[in-house]
Design a protein that fits this description.
The structure holds two protein chains of two kinds. Chain A is mainly alpha-helical. Chain A has two domains: 67 residues, no CATH class; 144 residues, no CATH class. Chain A is built from nine helices and three strands. Chain B is an alpha+beta fold. In chain B, 56% of the residues lie in helices and 14% in strands. Chain B contains four helices and three strands, in the order αβααββα. Chain B has a three-stranded antiparallel sheet. In chain B, α1 crosses α3 and α1 crosses α4. Classes of the chains: A mainly alpha, B alpha+beta. Chains A and B meet through α2 and α4 of A and α2, α3 and β3 of B.
């Protein structure tokens, strides 16, 4: 007797759906196929197994359709925004900590001290080192939420996007300098992607595209 | 004077017909996926059939839209199955779908005289 759950799990791939949803989908579809085959056998079908296998002609398309059907309007929030915010908090927390540890406030007016954070200061390079970790964190959280690779990448560059917007808003009053978006958004974005890279799900997940040759158990 | 009525059929006709079929059988009783496919097949004398690949994306999409809700139940054979039931939102969706399809078939009948065929 065929282990239908294993059969379905192998074909639907791991990255198609969040783990808990995937487990449920696999169990449900396996139960359906098993019942279908049983009933065909009882009805005396000549090749119940092959007929059951023909229920799904293209597992890759099937997996994609299931994923789309399961996606609700909140899925982008869970898969991109929430992991992205977590990564942004890590990045901004690291920046704040490094500023606290490495920057000495300088006098910049009567009874005033200022903190100057620049790309050639002591904070920048150590801060950059945290960005691959933030990218990796975002990609992992996004993957756990069932994100596709593009969504994982979007989550990984979220902190850089946040910084870009912040610098744009600051630029409206202080003026725009080309180096700011390069050092504080583009390079961080690249490092975020670099950190996310090992955790990407792959373009279409791990859905098998192999043709289904009828096999008998 | 005879009042004319414009019948507008949504472009997603295939999807709509599948949704109508599933909602209609679930309106009779809560069912699991295999039973839904079987009911549709038997009640249409095999004219309308749903394989696994067609049925589950529709069911999951309806579940996401809260038209149906599902829960695991154990059948008489001890086999665990996910049983679907219509929600109040699903019942609300069924009426306009029925009307839309009735209008569609009336329109098609006027055009192609299907009832004479």
């Amino acid at each position: 007797m065929r282990d239908w759950e294993r059969f379905v799990a192998d074909r639907l791939g791991r990255a198609t759906l969040p783990r808990e949803v995937r487990h449920e989908v696999v169990a449900e579809i396996a139960a359906h196929l098993e019942e279908h085959e049983d009933e065909l056998r009882q009805a005396g079908a000549a090749d119940a197994h092959a007929e059951t296998l023909a229920q799904v002609a293209d597992w890759r398309t099937f997996g994609r359709n299931i994923r789309r059907a399961k996606e609700d309007s909140m899925s982008v929030v869970r898969r991109v925004v929430m992991p992205g915010v977590a990564a942004a908090l890590l990045v901004l927390g690291a920046l704040k900590l490094l500023v606290f540890l490495l920057i000495v406030p300088e006098p910049c007016g009567p009874d005033m001290t200022c903190i100057v954070v620049s790309a050639d200061g002591p904070v920048y390079l150590p801060w950059l080192a945290t960005l691959p970790f933030a990218g990796a964190l975002a990609a992992m959280l996004a993957r756990r939420a069932g994100a596709r690779s593009k969504q994982q990448l979007a989550a990984a560059v979220f902190p850089a996007l946040y910084l870009l917007i912040e610098f744009f808003v600051m630029g409206l009053s202080d003026g725009f300098f080309w180096r700011i978006p390069v050092y504080w958004a583009m390079i961080p974005a690249l490092l975020g992607v670099l950190g996310a890279w090992p955790f990407l799900s792959g373009g279409h997940g791990r859905v098998s595209a192999q043709p289904m040759a009828p096999t008998h158990s | 004077m005879r009042k004319s009525r414009t019948v507008q059929i949504k472009p997603q006709i295939k999807r709509g017909s599948a949704e109508l079929a599933v909602l209609a059988v679930l309106a009779e009783a809560p069912l699991h996926g295999y039973e839904i496919a079987k009911r549709i097949r038997t009640q249409t004398d095999g004219v309308v059939t749903f394989d696994v690949a067609a049925l589950y994306p529709i069911l999951y999409s309806m579940e996401t839209r809260r038209w149906v809700e599902a829960a695991w139940e154990e059948g008489p054979s001890g086999r665990r199955r996910r049983c679907y039931r219509l929600t109040s939102e699903g019942r609300r969706q069924l009426q306009p779908l029925r009307r839309e399809w009735r209008d569609f078939f009336h329109a098609l009948n006027r055009l192609a005289r299907l009832s004479d065929a």
